[in-house]
Design the sequence.
């Protein structure tokens, strides 16, 4: 039993006892107020006094939430198939993770947080081996921890630039001319390199990553950007088995464009040093591409000494039905780098040996990750393997996709283009207004689903999402669709 000691903070508030944390999952949703309800609205008003909050939907009582159910500030119990934008691997307050609160490693890492790039913990290497290295993709050499998905992508790109310039120097370190000119943002120390991304992609909101992100205008407006190229990502027709010829042409057209961009930029001495791509364009509209497309993309990268970076921030960690979504492509060799965050709890990237950065302070910041998350991730991975959760996710994902396809035949004017990879499932609606209405209606009935792109509904449940949760999902989804018709 965890300690029931109560900690006070100042004179105005206190932290609840650990024994107040929920320890059982509700049997069904229960909604008694609109969402957001009066308490959530009051909390939002209070938050506005001290913090920006225009994107806040409603407030969650995390002590009362458990498993696949969240409980909001007004006591509404909601089946959560969006799970903090795909970021909680085992649902809310998994008891084995709550028990970690008394682990001395977690306590000391939290209260004496290390600057990992300079003064890591004595057990840092073993923490990595028991967590991130335990699930490292085959063929990779090591892992670099970072703070989040955005910083993972940004530093992977930095590593790609460093490797590209090192190759041009014949493997030698920067010259005195490089070091002097870079301080003036001039050649040769500040090269005119670029990264190729794809229309519909999302890789983060930092200044660098916004150049690669092309999912929603609101992310990018008013923000300066690099002069980096963008290519089209395949847009398939569904069901796939009925549109093979069209979809193959989409692959070929997009790959031809990628090759042309790399060649033209090379001639202009504005070389593409890296290509970054998501297995599923999750924020842009849950767009998929075939294994043949990704194999062709890797081939083009290899032919041009361009880094092939796979952004698995949202798809990594088992939700696709394999631990890494790219494992389903059957690539001849591993990607050059694979970035991650969300279900892996901390950010970072795996790399092959060619992309290991050997000089200090080139991939560096104060925190460079979070050791407390590795302590938790160590237990998360143990549970995922012990309970066979990736395979169970694959199975329930197949059933989810099958049932969504059934609903598509019943409501063809409201549910379109069903697609999925594991529980990374989605369907389209005819317009944004209908999509947004469906999400609101479903929430009012106790089902939390997500939206992306212009008119897409997506599912991002935890790895503990099972048949009983699927049955509730389908029941509430169908009732919601009927009310939107």
Sequence:
């Amino acid at each position: 039993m965890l300690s029931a000691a109560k900690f006070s903070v100042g004179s105005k508030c206190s932290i609840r006892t650990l024994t107040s944390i929920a320890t059982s999952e509700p049997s069904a949703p229960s909604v008694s107020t609109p969402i957001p309800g009066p308490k959530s609205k009051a909390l939002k008003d209070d938050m506005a006094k001290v913090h920006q909050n225009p994107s806040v939907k409603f407030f969650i009582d995390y002590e009362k939430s458990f498993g696949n159910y969240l409980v909001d500030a007004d006591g509404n119990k909601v089946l959560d198939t969006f799970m903090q934008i795909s970021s909680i691997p085992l649902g809310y307050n998994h008891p084995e993770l709550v028990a970690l609160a008394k682990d001395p490693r977690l306590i000391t890492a939290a209260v004496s947080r290390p600057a990992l790039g300079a003064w890591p913990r004595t057990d840092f290497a073993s923490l990595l081996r028991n967590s991130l290295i335990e699930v490292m993709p085959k063929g990779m050499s090591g892992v670099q921890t970072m703070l989040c998905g955005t910083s993972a992508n940004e530093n992977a790109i930095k590593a790609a630039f460093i490797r590209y310039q090192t190759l041009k120097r014949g493997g030698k370190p920067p010259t005195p001319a490089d070091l002097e000119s870079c301080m003036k943002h001039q050649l040769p120390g500040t090269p005119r390199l670029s990264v190729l991304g794809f229309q519909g992609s999302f890789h983060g909101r930092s200044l660098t990553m916004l150049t690669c992100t092309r999912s929603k205008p609101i992310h990018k407006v008013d923000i300066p950007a690099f002069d980096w190229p963008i290519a089209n990502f395949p847009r398939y027709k569904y069901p796939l088995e009925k549109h093979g010829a069209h979809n193959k042409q989409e692959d070929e057209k997009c790959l031809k464009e990628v090759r042309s961009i790399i060649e033209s930029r090379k001639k202009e001495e504005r070389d593409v040093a890296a290509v970054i791509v998501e297995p599923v364009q999750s924020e842009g509209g849950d767009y998929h591409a075939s294994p043949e497309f990704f194999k062709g993309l890797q081939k083009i990268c290899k032919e041009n000494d361009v880094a092939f970076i796979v952004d698995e921030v949202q798809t990594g960690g088992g939700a696709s039905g394999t631990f890494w979504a790219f494992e389903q492509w059957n690539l001849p060799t591993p990607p050059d780098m694979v970035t991650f965050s969300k279900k892996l709890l901390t950010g970072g990237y795996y790399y092959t040996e060619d992309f290991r950065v050997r000089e200090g302070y080139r991939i560096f910041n104060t925190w460079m990750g979070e050791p407390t998350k590795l302590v938790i991730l160590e237990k998360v991975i143990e549970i995922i393997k012990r309970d066979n959760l990736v395979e169970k996710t694959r199975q329930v994902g197949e059933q989810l996709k099958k049932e969504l396809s059934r609903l598509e035949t019943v409501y063809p004017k409201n549910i379109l283009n069903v697609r999925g990879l594991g529980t990374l499932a989605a369907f389209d609606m005819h317009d944004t207004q209908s999509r947004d209405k469906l999400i609101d209606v479903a929430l009012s009935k106790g089902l939390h689903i997500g939206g992306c792109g212009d008119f897409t509904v997506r599912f991002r449940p935890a790895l503990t999402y099972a048949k009983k949760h699927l049955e509730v999902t389908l029941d509430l989804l169908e009732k919601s669709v009927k009310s939107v018709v």
